[in-house]
Amino acid sequence: MESNSVSKVLIFLFSIALLMGAQLILCSVTYDNKAIIINGQRRILISGSIHYPRSTPDMWEDLIMKAKNAGLDVIDTYVFWNIHEPTQGNYNFEGRYDLVSFIKTVQKLGLYVHLRIGPYVCAEWNFGGFPVWLKYIPGISFRTDNEPFEAEMQKFTQKIVGMMKSEGLYESQGGPIILSQIENEYGPAAKKLGADGAAYLKWAAGMAVGLNTGVPWVMCKEDDAPDPIINACNGFYCDTFLPNKPYKPTLWTEAWSGWFTQFGGAINQRPVQDLAFAVARFIQRGGSMVNYYMYHGGTNFGRTAGGPFITTSYDYDAPIDEYGLLRQPKYGHLKELHRAIKMSEPALISSDPTIISLGSFQEAHVFSSAKGNCAAFLANYDSNSAARVMFNNMHYNLPPWSISILPNCKNVVFNTANVGTQTSRMQMLSTTTQPNSWETYGEDISSLEDSSTLTAVGLLEQLNITRDNSDYLWYMTSIDISSSESFFRGGQKPTLFVQSRGHAVHVFINGQLSGSAYGTREDMRVRFNGPVNFLPGTNRIALLSIAVGLPNNGIHFETWNLGVLGPVVVHGLDHGDKDLSWQKWTYKVGLKGESMNLVSPDGVSKVDWIPGSLVTQSQQPLRWYKAYFDAPMDNEPLALDMKSMGKGQVWINGQSIGRYWTISANGSCGICQYSGTFQASKCQLGCGQPTQSWYHVPRSWLKPTQNLLVLFEELGGDASKISLVKRTTASVCASAHENRASMVDWHIDSNGEGTMLRQPKIQLQCAPGQSISTIKFASFGTPSGPCGAFQQGTCHAESSQAVIEKMCIGQETCRVTASKSYFGSDPCPSQLKRLYVEAVCFP
């Protein structure tokens, strides 16, 4: 009896041990030289950055599902310290800042998470993600071997890791987090900081590893990342990158899908052909994880944009646009790339590539496994000329600057330069409801000094006074002007020179605007030099210094100065120049409307608003405007068209949309060629137009009726022309070639044999709830041109329009085979033909 009992106990304990061992295998993340290993399996991982505070919680699930549908495995996000700990020791994880809810949404949809804690993030985010209070801790120095900084950084990192552990969110606990990042792009700083940088780097690595998350840690752009931390690459291209140890995998933490936009700059776009080429080139060199930065860029709501001068839109030319809509063909073409990579995965994770020269600028990278899997990448690095190459006794045509993927070393299922997915042309249309009953309130500057909080001799640094509680700081002083000055008798007016560290300044003399000056992201220094209208006696000078986001990168950027730091000099007086820099100045933080919280439904009633015509007030500076509007009944994404205004901020129902500024864009706009090395300024749009005209209005911020719209205008504008617009698809285009199958047309069986399942097709897809109403263009033959400007070629099937209309009108999705059997007789038997279609979706 005892023997049986002991046996049962032993069997029970053995079973528990087996289960625990299985659990350890099933919930583990490690790595080797080939890849990240999840639960015992090497993985080729496709990832995309989606930052939770740059969208709203009601958007998260849709964004993540679209990423999943495009073949992504991982969602990558930074953790933004300054939104979570706005004042020391006080935390905020509500609403858009609910990090745990965001990660659980990713988990619910079956994807992994790369949690980039930093806590320095850069990211064109205000102060690089650091809270401003951190700057004022005695003896602190950011991102170096400094005890006060390291203590606060460790405290916040432990806070985040503790939250993740308590919710069971690490893969080692059965959660979705497979990687974490400590620090961010520290390599350039480390080199400049020398021994202090090296000591800090070692400390940060040890601190992170000591938190025992059960998943690997990453450092990007840091070649000296200490073991066991994986160093990773950021950039437009990372095909030459190698990890710092031979036993680490090759990871690309930021494949830049586009580039950010700055006020006064053009819109930067990256052709999808080049992005796909860069990713394929990285994978063919042995890369095993690619993260698109950004996959959805979103919006810099409130005053979260840093830089400075970064726009409120953080669209980034990402595959999912700022509003959550698919950017086609970028989204679709990358989706096909991901499928081709996944088809090649068994070979990719099994061996290093064998490189075979195919020509002067052409080569093949061939992967094979012991089980007989074979995958090949055929590359043409020539940016000008196509190439015809021989590989495995077969000929292949390679467009310029492209890579063809052969998951079975035989059949081309994808080429980076051949875009076969739908192109969508987007537009902004007025909605059925518009802001109405505009009223105004003038910011009172006559009594500024009466409500000031500080007086000092000399000019003070702006951030030290505002602590970033407002973009605005008033600098006020006075000057006595003798009635005998010659300019009162027809002479030349005196001029006022103001030098500031930015980012903008408005100059008021006796309550009247005399002029403004602005810096740029490249040169933040502001210089105002203009004539001023002085009166005999005492003249009041008020300088409104304006921040457009705090710096987000640079060595010890916490020490950089902001605001009017001088000199401030009056030129052209009879007795010479008058330097005002070191006389008594009075300071006031923010605007009167801010202190009264005029932007909120509760605060808006605190002043007497002036109703009536806006025409006489349209060019008056420093004015508040308010109106109400009802939410449109449809569900398209919304924005405010602010082209009629100048510069300021805007709120909906008390929530900040962000800064607006209709400054015109300067850049080098022109024809964009996908081939050749990409840089941020290569492909620009919008020169001569406002850098940003439309400002995203989240649907979740709206009530059915009586939504409060409040804006503060610094310069003057016509608020009556502000309109609520919706983002919709103007038209969709698709093309198919007789000899060019798309990814969906191929099947590779378990023996590596490729079969083209069907002839190439076009696919037109309207947004949910829409259907194809009109066919703007259709041609089977030799059409040419870009979407929106298709043209018939010398070969054209006359039945094209009628056939496409019959098959597609009234359909949400339409598929048509590019085959002569659909269009009657062959219009040109001796030529390879293609089918081009442009359609309009409605409503």
Automatic annotation (TrEMBL):
Gene3D superfamilies: 2.60.120.740, Galactose-binding domain-like, Glycosidases. Residues 756-842 form the SUEL-type lectin domain. It comes from the Eukaryota. It is an enzyme of class 3 (hydrolase). GO terms for molecular function: beta-galactosidase activity. CDD domains: Gal_Rha_Lectin_BGal. It holds the Pfam family SUEL_Lectin. GO terms for cellular component: plant-type cell wall. Keywords: Glycosidase, Hydrolase, Signal. The keyword Hydrolase applies. Its EC number is 3.2.1.23. It catalyses: Hydrolysis of terminal non-reducing beta-D-galactose residues in beta-D-galactosides. The keyword Isomerase does not apply. PANTHER family: BETA-GALACTOSIDASE RELATED. Belongs to the glycosyl hydrolase 35 family. This is Beta-galactosidase. The lineage of its organism: Eukaryota, Viridiplantae, Streptophyta, Embryophyta, Tracheophyta.
